[in-house]
Write a structure and sequence with these properties.
The chain is α/β, with parallel strands linked by helices and about 150 residues long. The chain has a single domain, classed as Rossmann fold (3-Layer(aba) Sandwich). It has helices at about 15-30, 50-60, 75-80, 90-95, 125-145, and strands at about 1-10, 35-40, 80-85, 100-105. Strands 2-1-3-4 form a 4-stranded parallel sheet.
Amino acid sequence: MKRILFVCLGNICRSPIAEGVASHIAKKRRLQIEVDSAGTSSWHAGEHPCEHSVKVSKQHGIDIASLTSRPVSEKDKLHFDYIIAMDSQNRNDLEAMGFQNVHLLGDFGGHEGKDIPDPYFFPGFEGFEKVYSMIETAIEDFIEKIEHESI
């Protein structure tokens, strides 16, 4: 079984969406994949995903409302096969914390290594729709690659 951890800064918008999308794809494809998400900070520890992340996910048939934010932990270093950072700053922070096998989500799905941007930097709800689309495309490609062990 492959174990994947998606990581952003606060674990209330991008990484919970990624967790929900990856879980949904794995279930649909009947894959044995364990998925979780965390943040490089503990600012929102114990909080549920933000309202817009819950809304955009629900519009795509995915319920992430019950997820709760948590910071990455030392245990995560040993437990997860793949650590997937939402942006290059998250990747740099994770590597500085001693995480190995850190990948940038934007390296998948034809995003050419671009960061998955924080949706709060876009006006209104459109940013969440754009970020959801980027995450979904990248995760489809990432899961395809791990299925065929081409990572």
